[in-house]
Amino acid sequence: MMCTDCPRFCKVNRNIEKGFCGAQNKIVVAKIIENFTWEEPCISGKKGTLAIFFAGCNLKCSYCQNFKISHSLVGQEFSPEQFRQKIESYQLEKYSAIELITPTHFSSLLSLSFENFCSPIPIVWNSSGYENEQTIEKIAKFVDVFLPDFKYADNILAQKLSFAPNYFERAKEAIALMAKLKPNIWQEGVLKSGVLIRHLVLPQNVKNSLDVLDAIKQIVDKPFVSIMSQFTPFGKPFDRALLPLEYKIVLSHAQKIGLNEGYMQDFSSAKTEFVPNF
Ligand code: SF4
Known about the structure:
This protein has a domain at 27-196: Aldolase class I (TIM Barrel). Helices cover 29% and strands 19% of the residues. The chain has helices at 41-44, 67-70, 80-88, 107-113, 133-139, 155-162, 167-181, 206-219, 244-256, and strands at residues 27-36, 49-54, 76-78, 98-101, 123-127, 145-148, 185-187, 190-195, 197-200, 225-228, 262-264. α8 links the parallel β9 and β10. α3 packs across α4 and α8 packs parallel to α9. It is globular and about 50 Å long. The site of iron/sulfur cluster has 14 residues, from loops.
C-alpha cells in the first residue's frame, strides 16, 4: 500500500519501505493493560478499558510522556487477522471499552482487523488529532468514540515540537469530522458513541492553549472537552513544569467562552506517578 494513513502523506509502499513513522505492514503492540482506569470517567467507566498501546507514532512529539514506546517500534507484531484474534481472546464484557492508544499509523491495518468485527463494547480511538479526513471516514466504520488530542493552534510550535507544520489545519478538519460522524450517546455515565477532545496545557505556551480552545468552540457544536494539566517535564524542550497560574488562565478562558462540558484536571496531577511506566 502507498501509505496515506496520516497527514504526512509519505506515499511509501510499507511492504518494502518506511515513512516518517517507520511502521510497515504489521501492527505492532507495545503493551496491553487490562481494566485500565487512567482515562476520564466517561471512558474508563467502572471496569476500566482494555488498553492497547501501539508502538511508534505518526507525530513523535519531543516532549512525549510515553516516549519509551512512541519513539520506537518495539513490540509484538500482528497481521490484521492475528490482531483481531488477539482481541477476541479477551472476555470483552470485563471492560468498559476497547481502547486503541496512538493507533493512527496503523489505521489501514486496523480497518482490516475490525472488518465484520462486532464488538459488544465501544471501541475508543485515542489519538494525537494529527489525522486526515479520508482516514477518519474509514475508521468511523468501526470506531465508536473518538478521543483526540488537540495540541496546537500555533503551527510554528507544532513544527518545533512535533515536526508537523500543518497540524492546526489537519486537526481542525479531523476533529470537526469526528464530531459530525459521532454525536454523543451516553449510557450510565459512559460514552457509547461520541467525541471527547483533549488538550494538554504546555508550560510557557498559554496563548497556544487559548487559541486551541477558541478553535474547538468554532468547529464543534456543544464540544465535550478534557483540559489537562498533567505535563511532566523530562528535560528538553521544557525546563519546568506548568505553573498553576498558566493553568488557571486557560481554565478561566474555557469558562469565559462557554466550554464547560467535560473535565478539568486537578492541578496536582502534574506528578510523575500519573505517567504510565512502560
Ligand atoms: S502513517 Fe506513517 S508512513 Fe503513513 S503517511 Fe503517516 S507517517 Fe507516513
